[in-house]
Amino acid sequence: MNKSEKVLIAGILGISAGFILGTVFAPWSGEEMQKKIGVRKRTIEEKLKRLENKLDRLEERIKKERKP
Question: Which residues touch 56 (CB under 8 Å, ≥6 apart)?
Fold first, then answer.
């Protein structure tokens, strides 16, 4: 067996081991993970919207204070 064959076999074994260990020790199923990501996404979107509103109000206050 030459060096490139050994590297190829080692790579395949590494990927296989990673897949098996990832599947066995995954904390959540794919569906659960998608739900968690969706909840987190909505939370971030809500926070960004509140921040955007605060910035809009701040911008208006600054414009009002600049007027002579």
Answer: none
